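Sharing a chain and its predicted structure for anyone who wants a worked example. Both blocks are below, sequence first, C-alpha cells second.
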Amino acid sequence: MPKYSVIIPVYNRIDEVDDLLKSLTEQTFADFEVIIVEDGSTAPCEDAVKHYADNIDVKYFYKDNEGRSIARNYGMERASGEYFIFFDSDCVIPQCYFENLDKALASRPLDCFGGPDAAHDSFTPTQKAINHSMTSFLTTGGIRGGKISLEKFTPRTFNMGYSRKVYERVGGFREMFSEDIDMSTRIRKAGFSIGLIHEAPVYHKRRVDFRKFLRQVYVFGMSRITLYLLYPDSLKLVHWLPAVAVTGAAALLLLGLFVSPWFLLPLGLYLLAIWVAALVSTRSVKIATLAVPASIIQLGGYGCGFIKAYFTKIIMGRGRDIAEEVDMRRGK
C-alpha cells in the first residue's frame, strides 16, 4: 500500500497533464500512487497517462462531468494511501517534493497540510506576473498564507493533503466555489491540525491570460461571501481589504479627475511599489511591468466580486444555494 495517493481531477488538459505526470516520474521519493480522474472531458488524456504507466503507479478513471470536487471525491474512494495529496492539473511538481514532504511530516506530524506555489522558469511572462500578484504581500499574499500571513494558513487544492483519518471523519469536498477553503474550515473545526510546509512547493501555471485571470479572481471574491454564509465567523477584517481597495481607488480617481491631480499620487505610489517589488522578486523588467496590470486585475476583480456578492446575498438577501453556484461554474 503506498503512503501517498495523489488525486488529480482533469477537464480537457492533455498537455498540462503530460507535464504534470512527467514531473512525477522524476521524483526522488517514489512511495506514492497517482489517480487521474477525467471529469467528462471532450479531449481525454488517457493516452498521456498510458505513456507514463511504466514509470509510475498511475490509475486512470473516466466519469461524467460533475465538477472537480466530485471528481476528487471519486478519486479518494478509489485511493489506498495513508495520505491524500491534491494537485491541480496545471501544476508541475519539483523533484524533491515528496522527499521533502515526507521528512517534514516525520519531524512535525500534521493531519492536514499545504505548500506554497511558485513560477517555473518555463512559464510565460504573463504567467509569472500573475503568480507574483497572487503571492505578493502587496496584493493578497498575506490573505492566502505566505511567508507573512494575515490569517491562519488555509491549504488550497493546487497543493494540499490530509490523512485518511481526516477523510473518514470529515468526508469529501463540496461542489462549490472555494471548496478548498470550505474543506480546510471543516477540518479545523473537527479539531485536526493544519500547517504550511514551506519545503514542499509546486509550480503552478494558473491562468494564461488576463481575461481568464479576471474571471477567476472575481469568482474568488464572490465565494468569500458564500463561505461567510456557511461559516459566519470566517469573514475577517482582512478579507475586506480588496473591496476597500476598490472603493478607495474609485474615490481617489474621481477626486483626481474633478478636484485635484494630487489625489492620484497614492495610487501612483502604490503601483510603483508593486513594480519595484516585482522587479526585485523576478529580476525582469517585462514581468514587473506585467505584474502591475495583473495586480490591478487581482485586487479589482476580487474586490468587485466581493462587493457584488455582499450586496446581493447579504443586503438584498438573494443568496445563491450551492446548486446554483455549480451551474454558474459550468457556464449554465
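Comments welcome. The beta strands are 4-10, 32-39, 58-63, 83-87, 91-92, 112-114, 117-118, 159-163, 194-196, 202-204.
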